[in-house]
Amino acid sequence: MENGDSTKRSSRGKVRLQDIAELAGVSRITVSHILNPRAGSVRVSRQTRERVLQLAAELDYHPNLIARQLTGGRSGIVGYIIDSCAFPNWITCMAHAEEVLSAADYRMQVGLLHDRVDLLEKHLDDFYSRGVEGVICSSHTYLNFKPETARLFRRFNNLVLIQEPVTRGDSSFIGQDQEYGVRLLCEHLFSRGRRRPLLVNLKVIDWTQYKRISSFVETLREFGVESPEELLVLDDIPAEHRQFHRGFTEKLLRREPDSLIVFSDYTALWLMRELQERGIRVPEDIAIVSNRHEKYGEVTRPAITGLDYHFDRIGRMAAELLVNYMQQPAAQKRELREVLVKPTLIQGESS
User: Fold this and answer.
1) Segments in the chain below pLDDT 70
2) Exposed / middle / buried, residue 270 (Cβ in 10 Å: 0-12, 13-18, 19+)
3) Which pLDDT does position 16 carry in this prediction?
4) Of 10, 123, 124, 181, which shows the fewest CB atoms inside 10 Å?
5) 3 state SS of 131
6) 3-state SS class at 323
7) pLDDT tens-digit map of 139-174
8) What is the C-alpha separation between 52 and 287, in angstroms, rounded?
9) Strand 259-262 and strand 287-290: pairing?
10) CB atoms within 10 A of CB 330
C-alpha cells in the first residue's frame, strides 16, 4: 500500500497489531513476534521484518506494555524513588544511574517522596502494577520507616537501595560511608591544631544523621576530648532552605568552638557570612569544614574544605548492579551486595 493509505489508517485512532498485519499482508501473530520479540519467537524473512518495522514507524505504533507483560515480555522500565527535598548531589546521582540504565535499554519511572512511608508504599504499588523490572530507591532511611521497608520491598526480586538501610541484611545497597567521612573531617581538623570541633546537625530523624553523630562522638573520645556530646548542636533549623538567624549563630559561638563541621557547603556559606559580619575570620579564628562538598564551594573565598561522596559513582554502581540482577533468570537467587563508598577530602581554604 502507498504511504497515504498508511496515514489514513493511523488517523482513525490508536494503531493495533491487526492494522499493521493487514497492511503488511501477514498474520497478527507474525507482527507480534517482530515487534515484541521474546524467547521462542518464530523466524520470519528479512523482507517481511523490514516491511513490518517500516509500517510500524510510519503509523507511530506504540506497544501495549501491559499486554506484552501478560504474554511474558519485558517492560523495559525501572522504578527510581528519590527524596522530593533532594539536594543537587542526589539529582547528579540519579542522572548517572539513568545513563547506565539507558545504555542497557531501560527507561526510568521516577517517584518522589520525603518522609512519608505511605507514599513509599503507593509508589511501590504503582511500580509493581506497571510491571517494572527493577527498583532503585534513595529515599528510605528515615527512622520512622524502619518497621515497614523490608515488607514493602520484599516483592521486588530486582532491588538496589542507595544508602545503607536502617535494617541491614534484607536488601543490596550502595551507600556512603558516613562514619568514615566524619572521622576524616575530625582527623583533618586535629591535624591543623583544632581541639574543639563543633558538629552542627539537624535533629535526628534519619539513619545517616545518626551514623554521623555516633562517629563524631567516638572519634573525639579517641582523641582524648572529654564530654564530646557537649560539642554537638542539634537544631530544627532547615539549614538547607533558609539562612541562619542571628540567635542560632550566637548559640554556636557560646560553645567557644575553634572549628565547625557543618552539613554542606551551603550551610558553610551562610555561617561564613554570619561570622564575617561579627569580625570573626575563617579559618584564622574558626575553621569550617563541610560534610557534603558541592562544586560552588570551590569558587568562594575562602574555598570550602569538604567531603566528596562520589554521588556520580554511587549512581552508576547502583544501576550497574540492578542491570546485572535484571539480566539474570527470574528464578535465580540474587547475591546480596553491601557496598559503602568512602568519601574523598577536598582541601579548600576554610580550614
Assistant:
1) 1-14, 36-42, 62-73, 236-246
2) middle
3) 78
4) 10
5) coil
6) helix
7) 999 988 877 888 899 889 999 999 998 888 889 999
8) 68
9) parallel
10) 8
Give one word for 27, left, alpha or beta, with left for phi > 0 and alpha for psi -120 to 50: beta
Give, in order, the Cα–Cα distances in Å from 49 to each of 21, 54, 208.
11, 9, 53
Closest CA to 172 of 299, 334, 291: 334
Taking the C-alpha atoms of residue 135 and residue 118, their distance in angstroms, rounded to an integer, is: 17
Q: Can you tell me whether residue 335 is helix, strand or coil?
A: coil
Q: Please give the single-letter amino acid code of residue 186.
A: C
Report cis status (omega within 30 of 0) of the bond before 283. yes
Cα–Cα distance for residue pair 287/351, rounded to 1 Å: 4
Amino acid, res. 221: R
Quote the cell numbers at residue 187: 582527623
pLDDT at 245: 61
Buried b vs exposed e over 286-313: b needs ≥16 C-beta within 10 Å?
Answer: bbbbbbbbbeebeeeebebbbbbbbbbe
- 2's grid cell: 502507498
Hey, what's the cell of 13? 485512532
Using DSSP bridges, classify how beta strands 134-137 and 107-113 pair: parallel, antiparallel or unpaired.
unpaired
Query: Nearest 5°: phi and psi at 319?
Result: -70, -40
